[in-house]
Amino acid sequence: MTFPITYFLTTTITFTWRREIMPRKKILIVDDVKDWRDQLRSILKRSGYTVDAAKTYPEALEKTHRNRPDLVIVDLRLDPTDEDNRDGMKLLEALAKQRINALVLSGYGTSALMKKAESLQAVCFLKKNISLDTLKSVIKTIFSEVEKRELYRAKTTREFYTGKAVGYSHEAAGYPLRETLNQ
What is the pTM of this model? Predict the structure, then answer.
C-alpha cells in the first residue's frame, strides 16, 4: 500500500508499507470423515494456516513426504467400516521417525491409546468433542512453542559457529514438544 504524506506544504514524500511475508504454517488433517475434514480445513484456513487433508494412511504418508507439514492432526481410526482399525497409530509411528509434530484428535480415547500415542511423541491427545476455539488455541500454542524452539536452535547454531556455544541439547531445541506443552 502506498500513500503520500505532505509536510510543510511544500514537500511530498511517498511511503510504502510492506507487510513482512511470513511463511504460513502447514497443517495436514488426516480423518476418514469427509464432513469433519472439510469443516476443520475451512476453519483452519480462515485462521491463516495452509491446510491439506488426507482420508487414508497411504495418502497421508504421501502428503507428508511431498509437503512436509508443520503439524499433522490425526484421527486414530481411519476406516469407518473396521472397528479395530488403528491406521492413525501407524501414521504416528511414521511421523515420529520424520520428526513431524502430531496432534491426535479422535473420538476413540482410551487411556491405553493415549499412552501409546504419547509414546509415539504425539504432542497432545484431544477428543473430537472439543470446542473449535479450544482446538485453535491449542494449535496456536503448539506453533508458538515450535517458533521458540526454532529461535533457540538458530541462536545455539550461531553461537556454535562463532565459538560462543557452551552446550547443545537436542531435546531442549526441538523435539519432542509434548513436555514443554505439559508444563
Answer: 0.71
